[in-house]
Write a structure and sequence with these properties.
The structure is a homodimer. Chain A is of the alpha/beta class. Chain A contains ten helices and eleven strands. Chain A folds into two domains: 111 residues, Rossmann fold (3-Layer(aba) Sandwich); 173 residues, 3-Layer(aba) Sandwich (Rossmann fold). Chain A is elongated, with a radius of gyration of 21 Å. The N and C termini of chain A lie close together (9 Å). At the A-B interface, helix 4 and helix 5 of A face helix 4 and helix 5 of B.
Chain lengths: 326, 326
């Protein structure tokens, strides 16, 4: 879906909510002479937001936009976030406004699909245990699982979920894709529990919205097979983390891998670090070499559309909380 | 290639060279009433070999056949090994004899292809470091590599090498296959160094023969890119292990994974356990749940062909040391 938006007046101001060092700022050299670039951090965002025609949310780990937006003053007409999810910035006031919100749709699809394949294969082939035994200099042959012919259920039918499904299918895994509503090639939410009950691999690639928050809870882990593995590369709050730890401890499921967490960075005293059969990675599934440059280039490209008064791509449905199909 | 072999006389004796406990014996219930089954271990093989019409080498880690065969007495007319490689049993006397040798061609193709994909993805996505950081409860974001668009060189164009190439291609990796001689879809050995020089992933799936022993040596590691990773799922002696350790230490290549070793099990004091960037696994790449049953069933099936006087499949070219193409 796309939406027509007016082009910028001369002297457009682009405000960048910077990421914390050492993360580099976006490369916006392509906008030289076309826009005034202002920078803000979490502390200065409230003061500078009224000056912005366009806001680039470069620090996609911050929820400063959601906190600051409802305050007084003019608001930018366009907000772009350098992330696939928009849960960190959406608030009722932004949703109700005329401001257009766009996301980084496309940049993360293939990297995340590969990362999920890496996790599925690592779990099937018992790689974590192999590395543990290597540290102990211990030669211990084990039988592992064949993935061809197993079943996956990928929850989330956006471009990331679809790329994950394509990659798992290419590896010979029978893969079902589940979205909000049934459409060709995509199961609706009504089929979810039935598909979870027979999946060897459950992959969560859903957007975080009011409808999906906490959707992976004790009941859903209880539906899964004892041999099933659960993988989350969506958003942490899609999972009730205590329920997952309990499900692993009680052997309701065989293992899991989380790349995202309700609170990031994960606290050093979190029980997730040591939950049995759980692989923890620091929200990096989509971040392959060059990803920041790609995100910057994507914004510059969208800016060109905006500048020319053409319809923007990657426009988020602010009520639903994601860019609708296909 | 297949070869006509005479059927068994009544009262055929099948001798099984058993694996050491706790590895289970083959399930040969399908031969009940059709053959007399004798068992031998390494110590008793010399005494029992003259009694055998057929030898099943169930302990494919043993080189007892190679040692015992040249001794005196009648020899079986058919030897089957429950492995893809035949390097552990071939000797000049067996090669010169009329005895037919068959192998377990087919059983390991898909499992090993998946295992190689697991290693490529684990190395690309820095999973060993992720598991290390998890043990330290340390949240450390890193950028990883995208595998789509990278290049692989798979050395060994038998069914295992071809399955590996198919799987890597399915993951978007540009993959070249190298065999002894050039044929459609397969590069000849003359292209090897050129392909190694531009590969991101070098996978060794070659049979161990006099022509291939030690083929991955200092010179060949020197040809590879500093960013390249080397994976061996063939036989340990294809690699000069000291040269690999040196190449890793000097950063001639970025990393490696070995599933096979010149001496197995790998000694506790081997420098390979701790070589920088080396992932060690205990010769298990092809051994997925049910593999022993599949190996037993495959022998029973071949026995049916032998019994009926039909040509055997999986017949090894004893001079070359593998089952020739396609």
């Amino acid at each position: 879906m796309s939406e027509s938006t007016p082009g910028p007046p001369p002297g457009t101001t682009v405000l960048v909510l910077d990421a914390e060092p050492p993360a580099p700022p976006p490369r916006l050299g392509g906008l030289t002479g076309r826009a005034r670039i202002l920078h803000a951090d979490e502390a200065s965002l409230a003061g500078r937001l009224p000056l912005a025609d366009v806001l680039l949310v470069w620090d996609f780990t911050s929820d400063a936009v959601r906190r600051v937006w409802p305050g007084g003053g003019p608001r930018p007409r366009w907000v772009h976030t350098a992330s696939a999810g928009v849960d960190h910035l959406m608030c009722p006031e932004l949703a109700a406004s005329d401001t257009v919100v766009t996301n980084a749709r496309g940049v993360f699809d293939q990297p995340i699909a590969e990362y999920v394949a890496a996790l599925v294969l690592a779990l099937a082939k018992d790689l974590p245990r192999t590395l543990e035994l290597q540290r102990e200099r211990s030669w211990r042959h084990r039988e592992t699982r064949r993935i061809a012919g197993t079943r996956a259920c990928v929850v989330g039918s956006g471009p990331i979920g679809r790329a994950v499904a394509r990659t798992l299918k290419a590896l010979g895994i029978t893969t079902a894709l589940v979205g909000r509503a049934q459409r060709p090639g995509v199961h609706g939410g009504d089929d979810l529990d039935r598909l979870l009950a027979r999946a060897d691999w459950v992959v969560c690639a859903a957007p975080l919205t009011d409808a999906t928050r906490g959707m992976f809870d004790a009941r859903r882990f209880g539906v899964m097979q004892p041999s099933a593995h659960f993988i989350n590369i969506g958003r942490g709050a899609l999972v009730v983390e205590d329920d997952l730890v309990a499900a692993l401890s009680k052997r309701w499921i065989a293992g899991a891998a989380l790349d995202v967490f309700a609170r990031e960075p994960l606290a050093a005293d979190s029980p997730l670090w040591t939950a049995p059969g759980l692989l923890v990675s620091p929200h990096m599934s989509g971040d392959t070499v060059g990803w920041r440059d790609e995100l910057g280039a994507q914004f510059v490209e969208l800016y060109g559309e905006w500048e020319a008064g053409r319809p923007l791509r990657n426009v988020v449905d602010k009520e639903r909380g994601y860019v609708p199909g296909p």
